[in-house]
Amino acid sequence: MDTTSTGKKVGSQGSGSDTSSGAGSHEGGSGGGGGATVGGGGRDKELKLFEYFGWVYHLGVNSIGHEYCHLRFLCIRGKYVEMYKRDPHENPGIKPIRRGTIGPTFMVEELGRRRVNHGDVYVIRLYNRLDESQKGEIACAKAGEARKWMEAFDHAKQQAELELSRGSNRIKLNTEEEINLDGHRPRVRRYARGLKKLIRIGQGPETLLRQSSDLGGRADGYFEGDIGDVIEAQEWKCVRTINGVRIFEDVSDTKSGKGALVKAVGVIDADADTVFEVVLNLERHQRYEWDMLTGDLELIDSYNGHYDVVYGMFDPKYLTRWHSKRDFVFSRQWFRCQDGTYTILQFPVTNKKKPPKSGYRRTKINPSTWEIRSLNTPMGSNGAKCLVTQMLEIQSKGWCKWKTNTGTNFEKTTPFALLSQVAVPVTFPVHHYSGLKEYIGANLNVKSGSSTMVIQSKFSDASSSIGDYEDEEDMQEQFYDAIASDSSSSEDEESDDGNEVDKKDKKVKLKNVAWAMSSLALKRTSVPDANKELDCTIPPVVIDPSQFHGSLQKGEDGTDSNCWASPSGKGFMIRGKTYLKDNSKVMGGDPLLKLIAVDWFKVEKTADRVALHPKCLVQSEAGKKLPFILVINLQVPAKPNYSLVLYYASERPLNKKSLLGQFVDGTDMFRDARFKLIPSIVEGYWMVKRAVGTKACLLGKAVTCKYLRQDNFLEIDVDIGSSSVARSVIGLVLGYVTSLVVDLAILIEAKEESELPEYILGTVQLNRLRPDSAVPLKV
């Protein structure tokens, strides 16, 4: 049976949306339609109360241990969530089979793709970070639909946080039942208020058999993104243009003897979700329409929702008649960043399940990446657009001759064929290559997001009588309070009023390339205002670095390894004074807090509350005399587990009314919405750089963060292992960590004009860490 999910959002009340936060923040996590600032001194704006609804798959295990996949109709109204067997708009008076609220501890985690009943779905895990029994999974047929549902849940969570921060509904929130998708279905009350206000989508499950839904609005409605938050050292030079696709070479590093790093860049008339699914799809009939080189692909292993191993074959006779048939094995690792960009990493690997095959020559494909990012489109334009970048490591000796037009042999090589996957090269007959650009441009079904996926789902339950429900007085309202970010899918929402979005939000903003931005930023630097963030009425203390020692040594110069340093913030781009008006960013200045020590621990289990350890520098006599210490405990999942602990100190007490003061003494909700980290791989393998990226990340929305505020310190325990995407990326980083130089910047995201410009709170540079040098931490 061929089904997909549908959904839509409806703005029902509320005024004013803050495009600089929540959904509108292209740096900080996903949000639903209309964002809001959560926490912080009563500056919060009203959240628009949206209603989201559509078909999803409810996944789980029944009481006898059998897995099930049921088609269900899901509604999110404000902070309330309901699940039905049938569409309540077509069945007035029907009772939800599950109902409850979303609260501040609700988390959503993307689990990636999973094979269910011979079809692939995109799975979202919902859970309560304080109660492991409150959990469940839903799934969608499309990556874009899963993304939009995550944004809907995030918007509902913001609604609950806003109500809680105001205090007016604190008692009510504490007594309401949270939604729970796992275990036996609870008895629920009839709940049909306001359903008539909702907009009908489709005709029910039967319609889903024929076409995909569209939650719909602009593909770029939730992020801006096309420039990173780090000034990169790479310098790309365009060496050829083929059918609208530009081919670049990284000329910043010649990599003597190691070939070249090149990329093909093209604009495709489709949203990023659609292109991502086309690239990831292994179905032969579809692959043949755009990828003639690697069209014969077979899935060997699938380790999780973000990692698999693929076997492929190709016949290069159209490149040169002297080559035999070839086969290859490669791994694929993919994830979706907080700004909505999809990244796919492809490595050559070996696999025992596919030994060398008779008649084929086993070859290693070039390490490569796909980056797929939606573009903002001009006001009034129809259709979505996305920028597709394919990056490739090339060892071919013919590359230099080809780019200078002194030879054409490169056009008959496998690397060139791989680069041509983005679009058709004009130098070859069309029947040799198709390319993503031409395939999607010619295939209206793909552009509209129609689904050909087949999946089994029982519809007999939909005819259950209303007598199956218990009396109202005995019923408990449940749903559970959880949401975390972890997969590469979610769902788009669409307003019933096409004019609902402010015209000013649809302005086309011209972006400069990264190298141009970096030169411009030299003239504009954001320096922290100590008078604003710290209490300058109190004389500063002298911070003597010799009094503080961590298990990881401080480096003397850039050539040292297994050490740390404290760079300036000039390598990072942060929000400028006019960011809310024009999205402009400026170069960061020197950090406000001083990095005094770094610990590198190995632990059996994740270690929280490191600052309370009797041997921690925070508990030393010198540490107790410091006005304030910020402790960042980055918990790295591995075997064994590691903790990288950073200690930042201030020379004066905090200004309680400043943004930093509100962050330190505020609620966990406020901290989660503001705690931001910008990563940068300064030196290292290019594939690791692409995996880590250069975009700012709101850690509280990406992974689980715990906060400990005592005495003169705040400790933030960052559980990187709480996100499958973060685990996947950190696993790749650890494989190359001894050759990496990593810069990190920590800051508090500014969402109000009075908080701008942003400033760097602290930085650290980690030089070629050795895992075996980590010191055991005895808890």
Structure, explained:
The strands form five sheets. Strands 9, 10, 11, 12, 13, 14, 15, 16, 17 and 18 form a ten-stranded mixed beta sheet that branches. Strands 1, 2, 3, 4, 5, 6, 7 and 8 form an eight-stranded antiparallel beta sheet that branches. The chain is globular, with a radius of gyration of 27 Å. It is an alpha+beta fold and 779 residues long. The longest helix has 24 residues, at 143-166. The protein has three domains: 8-214 and 461-474, Pleckstrin-homology domain (PH domain)/Phosphotyrosine-binding domain (PTB) (PH-domain like), CATH 2.30.29; 236-447, START domain (Alpha-D-Glucose-1,6-Bisphosphate, Chain A, domain 4, 2-Layer Sandwich), CATH 3.30.530; 562-776, no CATH class. It is 16% helix and 29% strand.
The CATH class of the largest domain: Mainly Beta
Low-confidence stretches: 1-6, 9-45, 170-175, 188-226, 426-433, 448-523
> What is the average of the pLDDT values?
74
Estimated helix fraction: 10-25%
Global morphology: globular
Number of E-type strands: 32
Using the 3D structure, state the CATH architecture of the largest domain.
Roll
The number of helical elements comes to 18
Classify the secondary structure makeup into a structural class.
alpha+beta
Tell me the CATH superfamily of the largest domain: Pleckstrin-homology domain (PH domain)/Phosphotyrosine-binding domain (PTB)
Distance between the termini: 54 Å
Q: Give the percentage of residues in beta strands.
A: 25-35%
